[in-house]
Specification:
Chain lengths: 400, 254
């Protein structure tokens, strides 16, 4: 076995032309496919990345006037497609004034319901009672830092006193994760604001006038749901609309467009790869086979001397596999060069995110294994032919 | 090499090729060959010399008869090697151990140097012996070409490499099929002499075939001839091996 491998290698390096030829044939098919694959990955990842960088892509809002109860939110939370769900209050009450505790400056900001699992928040962050997360611009304008206390101030024309809720800032969202001036807090805070507008008494906040809070039925005006991932968005939207008989708003069309593009690119690539590998298989099978036929005398000589017994078929297989390994190395080297060139020609700005032509380590390993096995299988006809060579040909056919 | 008491015994081996219209049957008769002995196998073209050597060299299964290698301490029944599932592997390893082949034209591996070609039969047989390899190369006048590839050598030189390769792993039996047919008379004579010397010195049993009887007749050796014994119009050609007495054949050719 070792001796067969050694001789196969020596033969291969002695006849470099054939080795180069095989490697060239393999790389000639492999490199364009890899470049296509890499470009597909690069473009697709960039588009998906753009979508994912904005949690809005995962967001579904109910529209219109439908009543939702806490139980509805709990039900949706239990669905597999759901990443995060929160109830919404009436939207006209979302605007509040904010100031740093004891600060002088005030700014209006939008109050957004949030909580654990909200893709707008850093992963794993829970918003407890009396806690808030604020946007970068609000933090900057009011000079608020993480850990500071802020006051949420609301006033209504018909109420003598204003509502003041103090919250602790647990995190300031970075600029790219937030837009405008916003405060993210638990739905309870928004509900409180709504109760205030609806003229209920809130003695805990020093508002004694108004209807008793016990008369208030807790109901909400909408749901905001985030899908687990982009592929679930459409399903989740349909499910919500069916379950609650409401219309919803989401960026489903954009997301579906990118997902379809990805699917179609994959399909096109698969078709191309299939056609290419059929041609390649034919070239390799007949190439390796022809090699064995051409080397009949060499193989018969080895068999005559008793090499390998019935394992002489390994000779062409080992040669094929060595060619495959070389071709894989050459192909990835060329891919690397090609992606460098592509980056130079198309100023995509994708370089920082991983480049226009992208093939991950895992994908490279899979491609290599597939090519290795593919080439190995292609050499089996040659192996069979090698096994059938009669060592007596050396005595019978006077040549070489 | 000590092959004392070691011999190959051939008992009425037969093989029949073809079917129906045309058939060819070879009959070996009963004989044996000892270490150091040289047999010249002669017969016109088509009488089955190569066929017989194929059977002797474990390259083809005999149709009948028995064939074994007898040593003082062990006997190998070569004819039985063909019946098992592992026939191919068994015969291959027996070839590597017991036989050295010198074909009509080299059969050298183009991708190994001369030294590499000679060493290869040692590697296959698992009897690596660089001193013996160098001795053979020197003895056959190949020491200066040891690093060259076969493509760089003349046909006569290649045939000498082929002889060195057949001897390198110290096999008991050397099988040379028309080893001189491709050579000019001078080289042919030299090659034949080398084989005979090697047999006498090294003690290997040697079978050399040649359709050219006068070429064989120049050397002292035991001779056997293959002869068609069937009628000329017969569809079933039968060729039989018989010992040749020196004087009878000499009379026939001179
Ligand atoms: N398949 C076959 N059917 C019938 N006869 C065959 C077949 N193969 C070989 N032969 C005959 O066997 C003989 C073998 O010849 P070979 O051993 O090559 O002779 P030599 O080496 O003496 O020239 C030839 O006469 C050939 O016609
Ligand atoms: Mg012949």
């Amino acid at each position: 076995m070792f001796l067969i491998a050694k001789l196969a290698l020596k033969d291969l390096t002695f006849q470099k032309v054939h080795l180069i030829c095989n490697v060239a044939v393999l790389a000639g098919v492999l490199v364009p496919l890899l470049v296509l694959f890499g470009v597909k990955n690069g473009v697709y990842d960039a588009l998906i990345g753009q979508l994912l960088s904005n949690p809005r892509s995962l967001q579904i809002d109910t529209s219109g006037n439908t009543e939702f109860l806490a139980a509805d939110a709990d039900e949706v939370r239990g669905w597999a497609e759901t990443g995060f769900v929160t109830l919404k209050t009436r939207s006209q009450f979302d605007f509040v004034n904010v100031r740093r505790k004891d600060g002088r400056q005030k700014r209006d900001a939008i109050l957004i319901p949030s909580g654990l699992g909200d893709p707008n928040l850093p992963e794993g962050l829970a918003l407890g009672d009396g806690q808030a997360v604020i946007s970068a611009s609000l933090a900057e304008q009011l000079d608020i830092a993480q850990g500071d206390m802020i006051d949420i101030i609301t006033q209504a024309e018909d109420r003598p006193r204003q509502l003041l809720v103090s919250l602790k800032v647990v995190t300031v969202l970075p600029v790219e994760r937030s837009s405008g001036r916003s405060v993210l807090a638990d739905i309870a805070v928004l509900d409180l604001v709504e109760a205030f507008y609806d003229a209920y008494a809130l003695p805990e906040y020093g508002i004694t006038q108004g209807k008793p809070l016990s008369q208030r039925a807790a109901s909400f005006e909408g749901l905001r749901v985030y899908a687990n991932d982009l592929t679930q968005l459409a399903n989740l939207q349909t499910r919500l609309e069916k379950r609650f008989g409401v219309r919803t708003e989401a960026r489903t069309a954009d997301v579906q467009g990118v997902l379809n593009l990805g699917r179609n690119l994959n399909l096109a690539l698969l078709l191309t790869a299939t056609v290419a590998s059929l041609g390649l298989a034919a070239a390799l099978i007949f190439g390796f086979w022809g090699e064995v036929e051409r080397k009949r005398h060499v193989l018969a000589s080895l068999a005559l001397m008793g090499l390998g017994g019935n394992r002489l078929w390994l000779f062409p297989v080992i040669q094929a596999l060595i060619s495959a390994v070389l071709a894989i190395l050459v192909s990835f080297a060329l891919l690397w060069i090609a992606s460098g060139v592509a980056e130079q020609i198309f100023d995509t700005g994708l370089a920082t995110q991983g480049g226009l032509v992208r093939v991950s380590m895992g994908q490279a390993v899979i491609v290599s294994v597939v090519v290795f096995v593919f080439v190995g299988l292609s050499s089996l006809f040659a192996a069979r032919s090698a096994l059938r060579i009669d060592p007596a040909t050396v005595l019978r056919e006077a040549a070489t | 090499m000590d092959f004392a008491g070691h011999q190959l015994c051939i008992n009425d081996l037969t093989v029949t090729l073809g079917d129906g219209e045309r058939r060819f049957t070879l009959r070996s008769g009963q004989w044996s060959i000892k270490g150091g002995e040289v047999i010249g196998l002669t017969g016109q073209s088509g009488t089955g010399k190569t066929l017989l050597l194929e059977i002797l060299g474990l390259l083809r299964a005999p149709g009948g008869g028995s064939y074994y290698s007898q040593q003082p301490d062990e006997t190998h029944h070569f004819d039985r090697y063909w019946s098992g599932a592992q026939a191919r592997a068994l015969c291959a390893s027996a070839r590597a151990r017991f036989f050295g082949f010198v074909p009509q034209s080299g059969g050298l591996l183009p991708f190994l140097t001369i030294a590499g070609n000679v060493a290869l039969s040692q590697e296959i047989a698992g009897r690596i012996d660089p001193d013996w390899r160098d001795h053979l190369l020197y003895h056959l006048g190949l020491e200066k070409s040891a690093h060259l590839y076969p493509g760089a050598l003349s046909i006569g030189q290649r045939q000498r490499v082929s002889i060195a390769r057949a001897l390198a792993h110290k096999p008991f039996c050397i099988i040379a099929d028309e080893p001189t047919a491709a050579l000019d008379p001078e080289n042919a004579h030299a090659a034949m002499q080398l084989l005979i010397d090697a047999a006498h010195e090294g003690g290997a049993a040697t079978v050399i075939s040649s359709h050219d009887y006068p070429a064989l007749a120049q050397f002292p050796m035991r001779r056997m001839g293959l002869e068609i014994t069937s009628a000329p119009q017969d569809n079933h050609v039968v060729s039989e091996l018989r010992p040749l007495a020196d004087q009878v054949v000499l009379k026939g050719t001179r």
